[in-house]
Amino acid sequence: MRAVIWDLGGTLVDTYPDVDRALATAIRPEPDDTLLHQVALLTRRSSSEAISTLAQRHGREEETLRAAYEGTKQRWREHPPPVMAGARELLAAVRDGGGLNLVSTHRERDSATALLDALDLAVDDIICAPDGYPRKPDPAMVRALLTRHELEPGECLAVGDRPGDVEAARAGGVRGVLLETPGVPLEAGDAERITALSELLDRVRG
Description:
- By secondary structure, this protein is an alpha/beta fold.
- Helices cover 45% and strands 13% of the residues.
- The protein has helices at 16-27, 33-43, 47-58, 62-76, 87-96, 109-118, 140-148, 163-171, 201-205; strands at residues 3-6, 100-105, 125-128, 156-160, 175-179, 192-194.
- It has a six-stranded parallel sheet.
- β2 (100-105), α6 and β3 (125-128) form a beta-alpha-beta unit.
């Protein structure tokens, strides 16, 4: 395997607990498990969709929820969320095998770079949608990484936590793997699914 194309938040970095709680707290100061689960069902599809849906459902201003979300990203500069379990081992296994660790993310470059630096996660390249690429499931970022590093799609694997990640991979000819959050069902067709990154170690090492 010559490269793994990673999503960032929710895949390499365990961002969802902070995001879910921030949005839920913007709705109710002391959110219960039911509200947190309701938020989780939405954020695993799209943060923007979650904000607009929750605002309408609970009679809140979208700006209030968006401010809570942005505030979380600002706090991460000093107090970053944890690295996803198994991510460091997988990154090292790809690197040790002579492969590339590439990132395709919707996050702004400054935010993405700050997160990687704060957690000391080294990757070989990163493409961010705000740099001028359409968002996933459009395959433009995947294809750009393939072209930039002269990679054949069949030599690569893409790992993400949302259906859009695996849809973008598929459209770019790359095999996609969906990292699921237990208890949060997602529609992703016949995509391969895992619930822990460690499930990919043998494949990457092989």
